[in-house]
Every structure is written in C-alpha cells, then in structure tokens.
Amino acid sequence: MGNFDHLPTDIVLDIITRLQTETVLNCKLVCKPWRDLVSHHPSFSQLHLTHLNHSSTDSGKLSFLVKAENLELHYFEYNENNDETPIDSIKRMNFTPPFEFHYTFLGSFNGIVCFCGYKDYPVYICNPMTKQYVMIPEFDGSDCDDQFIYWSSGFGYLPSTDEYKVVKIFTFSTQLNIVEVLVYTLGSGNGWKSVGRFDIKEHRRRCVVEHGAVFVNGALHWVDQGVGSVFVFDLTEEKFRELVSRPPLPTNSCSIWCDYTIGELGGVLYYAIKYRRRITECTCFDIWLLNNIPDMNEQVEHEPSGWSKVFSIPGREPLAFTKGGGVLCFDYWSLGIYDSIASNSKNLVDFSGFSQIIPHTNTLFSLEELGEEDVYIMESAETEEDVYIMESAETEEDVYIMESAETEETKNRDLKTAACKLLPLLLFSS
Question: DSSP E strands: which ranges in 110-205?
C-alpha cells in the first residue's frame, strides 16, 4: 500500500468518490478502511453522486435500465466515444424485484428506481446497486363513500426541494370524470396525502391512460388513449395544469394512423404518432416536441400548446439524444441510432425481447438518507455470477462475457496502484 495509507482521509475520499460505481464496490473489497469509508462515511454517497452527475454531462455516455420479458432487469451503457462498439455489453442486475406478478418502472432519478406492480398496484422504491428497497404503504380508502378505481401512477424528483414524490390517481365508479390524487413524499413521515379531487374531462366517459406517467420539467404527464390529449400534473403545486392538445395526425392518404405515446427526450416532452404506410406497410413514428407547457393561469382557454415536428423515425421509438446529435431509438427487439440530418438509421444491438427501457444511472445513494424507516435488502438473483448477454447486431450471435475469478482478484489487487497514479493528477489539477 506504500504511502497511500498515510494520505488524509479527505484526499482518499476525494479520489474514490470520483470512480465509477462498479469500481467503488470493488474498492470495498480491498481493505477494511476503504470498506468503512465507502459504507459509513456520512457524505460518501452524496459526493459520489455529485461527481457522477458532473462527469456524465459531457462524457458522451448514456446508461439505461431494461426490463426483459421474463421480468429480469438488465443494465447497459452507450458510449459515443467508442465508434466500433458503443454498446459492448448488457449486464443482468443481480437481484430479484419483490413482485409475484408483472410490474412496471415508474421512473429513475439519481439511481433510485420506482416500481409499481399490477396486482393491487403495490409501489416499491429501490436502488438496484445497493439492493436496498422500501415498500410504500398501501392507501386505505375504506372510509370513502364511493368505490375507488385505480387510474394510474407516477414518480418524480424535484431538485429545488430535493423531494422524491410518488403519485397515485383513482377515479370513482359513479363519477368517471372525477379523479382523486394521492401524493406520497419520501421521508416526510406524512404517508399518503390527498391533494384533492379534479374534473379531468368535459365529457362523461372514463379516460384510459398508461399505467405509468412520464416525468418532465417538474410535472407528470399521461396521454389519453382515446382522443390523444395530454394530462399534466404539476408535482410542485400538486395540481393539474391545463390539458394539452395532441399534435396533428398524419394527413397523407397513403398512411394509416395506429397509435400514439409520449416520453422524455433531451429534457422535453415528446409525442410520438405511430402510423403505417399503405403501400409498403412500414411502420413510422412522427416525433413532436412540446415547445412549452404554459401555466394554466397564463394560457388562453382552449388554446393548444405548441408542438414542433422534429423528425420521423422508421419502425422505432426515440429513447435519448446523443452528444453528437443522433437519436437512440428502440422497438423492444433492438436498439439503433437515427441520424435526423441524413434521415437514416443504424442498428446497434439486438435483444432477445424486453418490455420496458428507461434512462438510469447506477449510484450508491442510500435509501436511509431519504428518511424512510423500513429499509430492506432485496434478495439476489438465483445466479451469483455477473453474466453479460448481448446479441450482435451484425452477426446476430449470442455473445457471453463472464469475468473470471482471476480477473477480479487482479482488479482488486491493482486498485490501490491505480488510485496512487490518479492522486498526482488530482493534486496537479487543483
């Protein structure tokens, strides 16, 4: 270990908090002082998160969490700086989500993922890297005069107040156009709070929306599957904003409109209109970005918010903008990149099938720091081996990469040497 043992704790802390999350976990295996520093230093996880967020801004790297059709979770990174293999592997996350039946992601912020199940709609907050999770208590609506009917859920993070909020919305059997909104703020100790009942539609029919909302710019968004309007719930004010009208449908007589969906793209709400060309029968997505979501007090009544059509993608939905201006896109069987200037796309990787994908960053953020009392450790997956599974886009052959025990031992043995080399760079840069 040499002179590394004589370094002040603050310097060692500064070095290790600048490492990637997976490397930090390896550091815990090197020696007891490092393990204690990572596990018990009160500022470690927050400092590490700050460095991660800062370094990812201009790094050209994007990371995602994937739910496979068999409900297993996988993680992969897209590295724009690696032209030959921007996605070199897809790693299975080594834990089992606590659901007996199907579930969905409601969102991921700072490495904290919100899951919602389909049977009785239980909600869990989890950090897949630390395996910590919190089960959000069920809402007791037994004292309500009318029957609650589940409508949808959402999850969002407000940086201005450092609050993570879960939202559940219910409608009623006798008033289908009225919804009651419940908000659970993590760590507040207040449990579920009803923020009121809202009339969400002028016409009296039950609106059908997706199971989970899209969180963009401090608000949750749902698209009405019937008419295509977008519901907007302000998570700070905890009230609905004015309804946002959908963008225009394709007018080409050679196209058959199929469906629409919404999502987040570069920090902006996007609206994807799916249609099929009559002659070629190819599926396309027209992608519109919302220019702004005006405050409901400032917006002229019934005036639609402005949408701008940015491009059309053949066969895939958008996922994220890359630093170089490309658009990562997916179709649940493959991932590709679309060049909006050249209007062409390139396949990057084929999957064996997945049902959901969201942006996600692996962090060591502790759920105990949120103030929740009952924090549990999730069970590991059946296999304890880290297996990376990916199908090559060119050969369509399965590629399996497994780290050997010898490789892990070498990595752990050399971690301090690498850190010592990093130290002079940090000192000179400061």
Answer: 112-117, 123-127, 132-136, 148-158, 163-172, 178-185, 192-199
